[in-house]
Design brief:
This protein is of the alpha/beta class. The protein has 13 helices and 11 strands.
């Protein structure tokens, strides 16, 4: 009888142990599954909450409500927006002294309605500016006094209209060449480098609470980085309000190096500036020689060999693309105390400017969401990376 009771007891204990192990494994697996589900449910903006903003550029179809699928994705994934084109001078002016703010108003309202940080782009830029801006009624080039007044009027009108509604502005865009010298634009030709100080002063006067940025591409080039630092340091020494540096992130799968990009982040932060990656995308297409960066005036002739991925990119390149994005985000997270925002230049591959620059008519895949607004695998990887940092 004793042996029988002992045997029964041992069996009960054994069954209990097996049940415990089974339930423990089930619980652990369930927790892992819940974690995976939670990660998949997280948006980019939620994953990076408390670190930095995640932004995107909006085009006219999105601003005016025609691209409904895009709009749903924007609301789901991003907490900061910038207008791709509708706030640029040539798109605001209908004639000299006459503005059409219809699209810009809709853009700002979209941000407000969806509790997003609104960034203004851009006030003073040598490109996408009406030709008459530098001419008098007879077609002659205007003088310093006239250009100063024209700059002040434009900046005051635009920034003043959105005072307290647009948090930050790209006050000056792309004023430094790749060799570090100041660009000899019409602004420079007429006013010298004083136009830089004037632009920031006028913007500050129009909205003293707005954050003011300088924005440029190829900022990881050592010579250009040095030139930008020299320019910004001079502005700071002159007492100009300068809050942030916008590093355009138009990069490729091979260059620039991550190390040089990181050097620029720390160098600009050392000036006491907030750092934002303002126009992030990674092209997978071959690039014509000597046409990198984002100089919009550059273009090259279409050739079939320069458009090799019409039907999608091969697995090997997709792996490279994914790793490249993750390498950049590792740096962003490493320096999250310096980073204000990461803004993608477009919502999905289909509306990226990369499809038409510097060669029109190509098929590129530079963003995190495909042409059907489906997240690429890299999105989950970026979210997991954010949760670990």
């Amino acid at each position: 009888m004793y042996r029988l009771q002992n045997s029964i007891f041992k069996n009960i204990v054994l069954v209990g142990l097996i049940s415990f192990v089974f339930l423990s494994c089930k619980t652990n697996n369930s927790e892992e599954q819940d974690e995976v589900v939670a990660e998949k449910m997280l948006s980019l903006k939620d994953a990076f909450k408390g670190k930095f903003l995640i932004g995107t550029a909006l085009n006219l179809n999105q601003i005016e409500g025609r691209a409904t699928s895009d709009i749903a994705l924007i609301k789901e994934q991003f907490n900061s927006i910038v207008a791709e084109n509708c706030m640029k001078s040539e798109n605001l002016f209908t004639a000299q002294g006459t503005y059409d703010f219809t699209a810009a108003d809709a853009f700002v309202k979209f941000g407000e309605d969806n509790n997003m940080v609104v960034h203004g782009h851009t006030l003073i830029w040598h490109s996408q500016l009406p030709e008459w801006f530098f001419k008098d009624s007879l077609g002659n080039q205007i003088d310093k006094v006239a250009l100063t007044e024209r700059m002040k009027s434009h900046i005051s009108t635009v920034v003043g209209r959105y005072k307290g509604r647009v948090k930050s502005w790209d006050v000056v865009n792309e004023a430094v060449l790749d060799n570090g010298e100041l660009r000899k634009s019409k602004f420079y030709e007429i006013l010298g480098d004083s136009y830089l100080k004037l632009a920031f002063e006028f913007a500050h006067q129009a909205d003293p609470e707005a954050e003011l940025y300088y924005n440029d591409y190829n900022t990881s080039y050592p010579e250009k980085r040095a030139g930008i630092i020299k320019m910004l340091s001079k502005l700071q020494s002159e007492g100009v309000q300068l809050d942030g540096m916008g590093m355009q992130g138009h990069v490729g799968v091979d260059k620039p190096t991550i190390a040089e990009f990181e050097k620029s982040i720390t160098a600009f932060a050392d000036l006491g500036l907030k750092v934002a990656v303002t126009e992030f995308d990674i092209t997978v297409l071959p690039f014509p020689k000597n046409l990198d960066g984002a100089e919009v005036s550059n273009n090259a002739e279409y050739k079939e060999e320069m458009n090799p991925y019409i039907n999608g990119i091969p697995d090997s390149l997709n792996v490279k693309f994914t790793n490249r994005y993750l390498d950049f985000f590792k740096v962003f997270l490493k320096h999250q105390d310096k980073m204000e925002k990461i803004t993608f230049w477009g919502v999905n591959d289909g509306n990226s400017w990369r499809n038409d620059w510097p060669i029109a008519g190509r098929t590129d895949y530079p963003l995190l969401f495909d042409r059907e607004n489906k997240a690429k695998p890299v999105v989950d990887s970026i979210i997991k990376l954010a949760l670990k940092n």
